[in-house]
């Protein structure tokens, strides 16, 4: 039983330590800790403590865990329910049955759970949580995210159904039924799946990476940093070359200040990116700050406008008013510039480019769309791989993510 408590508590601590800002992670840690109180209750039952301590811990476990599981599922599932849950309205309404159950126990002066009454609200909470998790998996379109949601379903849903069957239903029919020896098998199953997946795919944003030695880790970081710097040099030198070409073809005194400003920005960006590479054996630095997404899009587009004009590409811009982003402006501008430059590579003369910034509920979406040749289906699954290389002559892609990937 002690191992049961320690494993649940350790899992909760790991989730919080990995990303305390993630609301789904915080609620997952919450219900894991509340579930651990069930093991604490059984430990107290076997100790010399008064029996009332066992009843209190058991009551907390029985009324808090269903609430935590359901709120976690609502937040994790996303969509309108997650937005409503984050605003706090739904959390308050869902807290009413557990609060009423606790009030009823206090009025009775008996903390022994009323299992028929628990069955009436706790079982629907668990079943609704299962339905939300399964629905979030079915409607997910991103392959990587879909795999993560499937792992969450495999870890949680069978165990939650086991809790409903062996705790709430069985205890409501047979109050003296010893459920724990049966339900423990489900917990062992969940821990085994989670332990396996946390090393291979990651679980709820937590992934354990094993390095062979410090040299291997250093060489990997060096390769990533060098690739990023090489990519930045290519992009910024390309911008400088375009501006120089524009200056040569421009009439005297016409637009030179603008082209010189482009060269100045490109040089400054190159120096800043180079400064962020600590050395050949360290990761590059991230410096997040509040930044305006429309300004970043405009700045990334500025050095490419002459090129789009020469290609006969029509550029349509639509930027909604949004809140500032908390991101690294240098790297985000770099990423936007990569997509825009590769869109130019992917389009023939007379193409159309649309850049858009819009608000979708609680998210800010930066969109770049062109009418290029599109992405080959066999490469679509690999597009988010870091520093994906692509051999020349295999066709141009709609957003250029493979023609000019990060680190190319």
What order do the SSEs take from the amino end to the carboxyl end, as H and E? HHHHHHHHHHHEHHEEHEEH
Number of distinct beta strands: 5
Distance from first to last alpha carbon: 53 Å
Instruction: Characterize the largest beta sheet: strand count, sense, and whether it forms a barrel.
Output: 3 strands, mixed
Stretches with pLDDT under 50, minimum 5 residues? 209-215, 278-282, 391-408
Determine Rg (CA atoms, Å).
Answer: 28 Å
> What share of residues is helical?
55-70%
Strand order of the largest sheet: 2-4-5
Shape: elongated
Question: How many structural domains can be distinguished in the coordinates?
Answer: 3
How many DSSP helices?
A: 15
Let me know the average pLDDT: 75
Q: How does the helix and strand content classify structurally?
A: mainly alpha
Q: In what range is the share of β-strand residues?
A: 5-15%
Overview of the molecule:
With 408 residues, this protein is mainly alpha-helical. It folds into three domains: 2-200, no CATH class; 213-285; 286-408, 2-Layer Sandwich (Heat Shock Protein 90), CATH 3.30.565. It is built from 15 helices and five strands. It has helices at residues 2-18, 23-45, 51-77, 79-86, 89-94, 96-108, 115-139, 143-173, 180-200, 214-249, 256-276, 293-301, 305-311, 329-346, 377-380, and strands at residues 289-291, 314-319, 325-327, 352-360, 363-370. Strands 2-4-5 form a three-stranded mixed β-sheet. The chain has a two-stranded antiparallel ribbon with strand order 1-3. Helix 8 (143-173) packs antiparallel against helix 9 (180-200). It is elongated and about 95 Å long. Mean pLDDT is 75; it is low at 209-215, 278-282 and 391-408. It comes from Cohnella ginsengisoli. One of its GO terms (molecular function) is kinase activity. Keywords: ATP-binding, Kinase, Membrane, Nucleotide-binding, Phosphoprotein, Transferase, Transmembrane, Transmembrane helix, Two-component regulatory system. It holds the Pfam family HATPase_c. Residues 228-403 form the Histidine kinase domain.
